[in-house]
Specification:
This protein is α/β, with parallel strands linked by helices and about 350 residues long. The chain has one domain: Inosine-uridine Nucleoside N-ribohydrolase, Chain A, CATH 3.90.245.10. The chain is about 40% helix and about 15% strand. The protein is built from 14 helices and 8 strands. An 8-stranded mixed beta sheet has the order 3-2-1-4-5-6-8-7, with helices on both faces. The longest helix has 17 residues. The chain is globular. It binds calcium ion. Calcium ion binds next to loops.
Length: about 350
């Protein structure tokens, strides 16, 4: 079944003065948010990133393209996991089977990467009665446990990036599991960073697949980078550019020409940051201000980053170059410039 990203009209049309007005109107919600802590600004660039990719792989063909991009890239992919998708119309099992298939096709086409593959959640998180982020009960799966182990073994100098191209259930569960094992917010902040192809409104496709997970991502107070679908949709497929190998033939067979390749923005974002490509611009720092009924507003400051413009042609070009075994080289020394 092919489903398509429903891009939030509210998110697209949001202007910051209106967001601020809404912010001022939800004093109770603000109190809830700040009761959970305010957060220092930290660098979003740095060392070579260890990346754990979570995907609703069978939802839409941009996920399979994204997986191939990861597998042929120079990025350190330490694990991949499967997710349900919107309102359980798509099952985790379907995503897992597709993930196994595409990783195998990449291997048979010459990818040297063989990341462990994990089953993830088959449902969304439930909002706790208290409405408090840290009261949320995580969904324990092989995926969330593996991510949690990565968090436990990470450090300030060697953090783990959790990156999701579907609902945020698995990575949110991993952060909650680590917290329940006694890790403090400061320890979490040093060890784990979050990347999400997610929107500005809860009716965006990935966000609507697990509304509460998307809300608490912004409340964790961790480095959190969000690329909304209305930007990443500009990256288009070109069927003439896939390689003549097993995975290239598979992707060419399932991908409509000109299809929006939303999710390849996940590896592209890391390549951009660690190969100094300059593909993203107009970055906004924001915090999520959320009332208990999910009415959301955005305020333009905080530890989270929303990317509001991308160089779609450069990203598509790097994607196809990478599939042709010419990946951008990832730097192993820190990039010191602030964005
Ligand atoms: Ca996806």
């Amino acid at each position: 079944m092919q489903l398509h990203h429903a891009i939030a009209e509210r998110g697209r049309c949001l202007n910051w003065s209106r967001a601020l007005a809404r912010f001022l109107g939800v004093a109770v919600a603000v109190a809830l948010f700040y009761a959970e802590g305010t957060f220092a600004q930290t660098s979003l660039t740095g060392e070579r990133p260890d990346i754990f990719i979570d995907t609703d792989a069978k939802n839409e063909v941009d996920d399979q393209n994204m997986i191939a991009y990861c597998l042929f890239s120079d990025l350190p992919i330490v694990g991949v996991s499967a997710s349900h998708w919107k309102d359980r119309k798509g099952t985790e099992e379907e995503s897992y089977d597709e993930l196994v298939k595409v990783v195998d096709l990449c291997r048979r086409s010459g990818s040297p990467k063989d990341p462990p593959i994990y089953h993830g959640a088959d449902r969304a998180l439930s909002k706790p009665e208290s409405g408090n982020t840290w009261d949320t009960v995580p969904i324990e799966t092989p995926a969330s446990r593996a991510m949690m182990k990565r968090i436990e073994h990470a450090s300030k100098d060697d953090p783990i990036w959790l990156a999701a191209t579907g609902p945020a259930t698995n990575m949110a569960s991993a952060v909650l599991l680590a917290a329940k094992k006694g890790m403090t917010q400061e320890q979490l902040r040093q060890r784990v960073k979050l990347f999400w192809i997610g929107g500005e409104g809860t009716d965006e496709f990935n966000w609507s697949g697990d509304v509460w997970a998307g809300v608490i991502l912004g409340r964790f107070g961790l480095d959190h980078v969000r690329w909304p679908a209305y930007e990443t949709r500009k990256i288009k497929a070109d069927l003439s550019r896939y390689p003549e190998n097993e995975v290239g033939n598979y992707l060419r067979g399932i991908t409509p020409d000109g299809k929006a390749l939303y999710d390849i923005a996940a590896p592209a974002a890391f390549i951009n940051r660690h190969a100094e490509k300059g593909w993203e611009s107009n970055l906004r720092h924001f915090v999520v201000v959320s009332s208990p009924d999910y009415d959301l507003a955005w305020r333009e400051e905080g530890p989270n980053t929303m990317v509001r413009n991308v160089d779609e042609d450069a990203m598509a070009n790097d994607f196809y170059e990478t599939l042709h075994r010419n990946p951008a080289r990832i730097k192993t020394t820190p990039i010191t410039s602030e964005r």
